[in-house]
Amino acid sequence: MQTFSHQERFNHYLKLMTLTYTTAVTQLQRRYGAVKDDYFNQASYQQFLAGQVRRLQRGNYTRTRDGLCTHHVAENRFSNMADAATIRKYQYPFSYQKSAQLVYADEVEHLILHALIAKETDGQFGYHGYREYLSKDVWAWYVDHQVPQRNWRQRCYGRSLLSKEEALTLFDHLERGPLAQLLKD
After folding, report:
1. Containing H/E element for 83?
2. In degrees to the nearest 10, what's the CA dihedral of 173, 143, 131, 88?
3. If both were cysteines, with which of 16, 72, 109, 144 could 81 make a disulfide (CB 3.0 to 4.6 Å apart)?
4. What angle do CA 179, 184, 185 make, to 5 degrees?
5. Please, are residues 1 and 66 in contact by the beta-carbon 8 Å criterion?
6. Alpha carbon distance 172, 177 (integer Å)
7. What tens digit of pLDDT does each residue of 128-171 get?
8. For 84, phi and psi rounded to 5 degrees?
9. What's the pTM value of the predicted model, to 2 decimals?
10. Displacement of CA 51 from its chain's centroid (Å)
11. 108 contacts 160 by C-beta, under 8 angstroms
């Protein structure tokens, strides 16, 4: 896997937030390669939707050992695509759980993807994940210096490692860039 200097990574974040969501996803797919497996096992998924099983069986897609998250590309059209209750309620088709519909991202890239979704959908999608989960983690990690305790979260923390000043700059750019119109309302 290609490594980037701290400054290259930070500049990449600033550039990423100026792109369209689709272009950003394409760039991340090129950067990290294809996701190696579907998010859920297809048979398990179909049985779950039919009410035949209670739990979804996950695929072998993770790269948390590399500090990367897995993002559903269709989150610009659907909410909570990894949440069993939401999947059952809305009966999301399995096609959106396939590896070709996923992309790897570090925690800051994931935050930026959700900001881009929020911008392009006028807050209908993406903003809840941005506000309730991702921004809270990035703020806690890099502004409040709360290093996560779980091993896989520590790897995610280390992968995106920002100084407090860089994190504040990043949030400022997000609020003046992709989120500007949404926050104005």
Report:
1. none
2. 130
3. 72
4. 110
5. yes
6. 8
7. 999 999 999 999 999 999 999 999 999 999 999 999 999 999 99
8. -60, -45
9. 0.95
10. 28
11. yes
Q: 73-89: per-residue pLDDT in tens?
A: 999 999 999 999 999 99
Residue 64 CA to residue 80 CA, distance in Å, equals 19
Q: In terms of Cα–Cα distance, which of 107, 101, 99 is closest to 35?
A: 99
Tell me how crowded residue 16 is: count the other CB atoms within 10 A of its CB: 22
**What residue type is 45 in one-letter code?**
Y
Nearest to 76 by CA among 136, 127, 16, 133: 127
Q: Report the distance separating Cα 117 and Cα 79, nearest Å.
A: 11
Q: What is the model's pLDDT at position 1?
A: 54
61 close to 37: Cβ distance less than 8 angstroms? yes
Q: Which two tokens stand for residue 63?
A: 């790269």
| Residue with tokens 């989120």, as numbered in its chain | 179
Both tokens of 17, joined, read 């937030």
**Tokens (6 digits) for 84:** 């069993």
Nearest to 25 by CA among 95, 87, 117: 117
The answer to whether 38 touches 81, Cβ cutoff 8 Å, is no
Candidates 104, 79, 117; CA nearest to 156 is 104
